[in-house]
Amino acid sequence: MIFNIEDCNIVELPIAHTENGNITVLENQLNIPFDIKRIYYLYDVPMNAERGGHAHYELQQYVIAASGSFTFILDDGTNKKEVFLNHPNKALHIKPGIWREMKDFSSGSICLVLASMKYTESDYIRDYREFLNYRKNG
Ligand code: T46
User: Fold this and answer.
1) With contact defined as beta carbons under 8 Å apart, do 98 and 3 qualify?
2) What is the pLDDT of residues 38-67, one digit of tens each?
3) Which residue puts its alpha carbon closest to atom 28 of ligand 1?
């Protein structure tokens, strides 16, 4: 199935409030639309760094600003949109086949990623022309 940037939305995550702070819980088959196979997080990212610059054939992700803020630029080969993430109760759901870049990491930010697949280099498209060709011709 081919997804567009309109299919990549911010999802409000549940918050359990306690007088000593909040907790957000995501559990396979309960409140996340794929089974989590891998968790990773980006941190100590220099403020001017740009990351990403690739798409995935199959992988889908929930991206959460566990701390601080950053911006994702999503691109489906036709349209682009910027998504600013700055709160741990919001996840950006990135569907397969979407080119992404990341920028404007605030100092101390942590970009938490819940992923639907184990790390597979062959799932990456790292060349933008190849990505455009994939979007056009499948
Ligand atoms: C995305 C953003 C948010 C591994 O060995 N295992 C892994 O699970 C990952 C994610 C990376 N790596 C290695 C592969 C590369 O040599 O770490 C290096 C950097 O990986 P990558 O180019 O994927 O890093 P980012 O920060 O550009 O992108 C990652 C995700 O891959 C990507 O899908 O959306 O984080």
Assistant:
1) yes
2) 999 999 999 899 999 999 999 999 999 999
3) 52
